[in-house]
Design a protein that fits this description.
By secondary structure, this protein is an all-alpha fold. It has one domain (2-94). It is built from 4 helices and no strands. Helix 3 (53-70) runs antiparallel to helix 4 (77-94). The termini are far apart.
Length: 98
């Protein structure tokens, strides 16, 4: 996924039509990643409801790692911001696992 290795500086250097295409690709990618994170956290909640704290923690930690990877300052700002939101969601869920 080329958009994942694109920095803000690289993005700004793209021709206008390429920037628009890349922006649309980044928006679609972040939508997919948010849905993936929500799904994994939901699966973790289901595991917690059955008392399976190990699976709950594993799902939350996987989402946390995803968010941290997306938050890398060398990524597009949109991807970084979505990563930070995913980190926050995962941390909140992890704090409920006792």
């Amino acid at each position: 996924m080329p958009v994942m290795s694109l920095s803000e500086q690289d993005f700004g250097a793209l021709p206008s039509n390429e920037r628009e295409r890349t922006q649309n690709e980044a928006i679609e990618l972040t939508r997919t990643l948010r849905n993936l994170a929500r799904h994994a956290l939901s699966a973790g909640e289901n595991a917690q409801a059955t008392g399976d704290k190990q699976t709950t923690r594993a799902h939350c930690e996987a989402v946390l790692h995803l968010g941290q990877a997306l938050s890398d300052p060398e990524r597009l700002l949109l991807i970084q911001l979505v990563g930070k939101a995913i980190v926050k969601m995962a941390q909140e869920r992890l704090s409920t696992v006792k």
